[in-house]
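Before the break, one more example. Copy the sequence into your notebook; we will annotate it together after we see the structure.
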Amino acid sequence: MTRDQLQELIGKMTLEEKAAMCSGADFWHTESVERLGIPAMMVSDGPHGLKKQDQKADHLGVNDSIKAVCFPAGCGTAASFNRELITKMGEALGNECQAEGVGVILGPAVNIKRSPLCGRNFEYYSEDPYVASEMAGALIEGVQNKNVGTSIKHFLANNQEHRRMSSSSEMDERTMREIYLAAFEGAVKKQKPWTVMCSYNRINGTYAAENKEVLTDILRDEWDFDGFVMSDWGAVNNRVPDLYAGLELEMPSSGGINDRLIVEAVKEGRLEEAVLDRAVERILNIVYRFEDNRDKTAVFDRDADHELARKVAEETIVLLKNEDGILPLDEKEKIVFIGKYAARPRFQGGGSSHINSHKVTSAWDCVKEWGNITLAEGFRDEKDEIDEALMAEAVEQAKAAKAAVIFAGLPDAFESEGFDRGHMRMPNCQNELIARVAAAQPNTIVVLHNGSPVEMPWADQVKGIVEAYLGGQAVGGAQVDILFGKVNPSAKLPESFPYKLEDNPSYLYYVGEGDRVEYREGVFVGYRYYDTKKMDVRFPFGFGLSYTAFDYSDLKLSAENISDQDTLSVSVNVTNTGSRAGKEVVQLYVSDVESTVIRPVQELKGFEKVELASGETKTVTFTLDKRAFAYWNTTLHDWHVESGTFLVRVGKSSRDIVLEAPVNVDSTVKVPVRYTLDTTFGDVMKDPKAMEMMAPFMKLGILETGEDEGSNAASEAISSEMQEAMMRYMPLRGLLSFSGGAVTMEQLQGMVDALNAGQQS
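Here is what the structure looks like once it is written out:
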């Protein structure tokens, strides 16, 4: 439907019908207007599977949703670092939505993993905003290729579950721009999600639903978002101001209460009807975008999508440790699978994204007919209690086997939407099981099922560690393919694994005090903190092993000198030097060699996944623009590049930089300086033009000792270094005190005015 047709349609709607259009008809549908032929549109929870509920809807899934396919959660799909693969997954989700008549799937969720404790981390992608935005963009592209909308969420700074509906995320402008907004920005600008879901929390004191700066000034005016903004379920706090701020659709239905508030505000002149009309147009534009592109031939092939889920899971499993080449295992050897998750895997998180899977494939399902592999339960996860009988059985079977594979991780009681983790530990019963089995069987491998980092007190006791994350309903097949070498692992960690919770940069301030949580670590989130501080971590950001080996060579930059308006092309050769085919994630980091602002030692600005046969070499290329070198300048309120040398660094993780090359970048933008009487001489000295104007005052002999040049007393009391430092850090007003009356206040103020006037010329 064209815009003219939409506006004509809106012109026929009553005030009450337009107000009703701005809230859901129920839990999962937009409002319809039968007399005008306006259809309702269904939305459904996601983002890693279709959670379409029937009439008895409840949002969190207490009432069953339809049988569907659970793909790997965001924590795992980000580990793939494979945009093309995640786009295919998105296309499958989009097709499922078409088959089920769902117009918008609620996802992806791109909030930053600020702390390992966030209960919803399993849905989120990364501690790095570039990774989060790129992987979100890949999923959005896939879903919307099928003419189904996405709802990127939760906008903004929803980084904890604790008091999520009332807490205020307190952060400075630069932190918001470089970390928390950046996670959304790239995907919104490039892939154009049909909708954006605003979060529950407040941002610097203002609820997200009422935050005009975020919902309108940034999202629409800067990023050119053209869909509609919907609330998280129950996030509306003040309906009329929310509408002004840019929140079009309230979900779920308010039962007409908030609709009446809108009607009253229009009738009383407190709300321009044009604002309401604009909101309705934005909603109907999406409703008809789906309605006009319905694919009535689409079929939800659950078995086919299950196999795709397995392929996706294969690239989400990270090999973290492989001592003595313990993996891959020999299919003919006697092996024991230990742990509840071997037969009943934890493959998804709890809460609104929980999928009613049509089938689940465990690792045990894939091997139980082989004859050489046995199963021991080892632990139960209903309670964190050691079952001595189960543990003894597991140890005995481990002793009799060639190798033991322990399937462990976090139970739902430890990690779920609605609450945050209280610590970073796994259940004690599982840690004890791993320790006892490893003591009895030197060839022990641990396979982890979790949505966020865990502490690993047993890491040095086992030979293999496999991070399976929450790999979806087909995770068992993918795990077996990795363990026995049918698939070469290629995933990398999209987050750092610290040794302990206390190492995390947000540790002291998470989850805040009352309804206020301060983001005091600023831009130093995840590896930005660990790498800058040179702090040891259990496993670094971007880390992951393979069954083959890769060498990097011939790093080339397209220029040695560029301006901030130019783009820089980067290329590097990658060679598979091992004996089997594999995939490598090539990571590009940028480091500002000398900055006047506090910056991380390096930041990820590009990644590419490349597949190589044994002995094959491929050239991987990147293009860097201004943003790759910029920081958010709070004076300009814009991205700014300082003139200077930057290092372009290419590596296998943030701690394994293989090659680097310098490039000089010249800034075309001068940051304005406002001089005052409190400005130091040192700051004036940075500007040659200002120094010329200061020359007459610099000849006044400030801080001269009055002693002969060779006086021992003078040289002992005031060294040249001290004199220079005192001069550099002295405010301009110091001239009044140290010029011996040679400078008046009028002269000093005139000089300051002249310096500021010189900034304008």
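DSSP finds 23 helices and 25 strands in the chain. The chain has a mean pLDDT of 95. Try to locate both features in your own notes.
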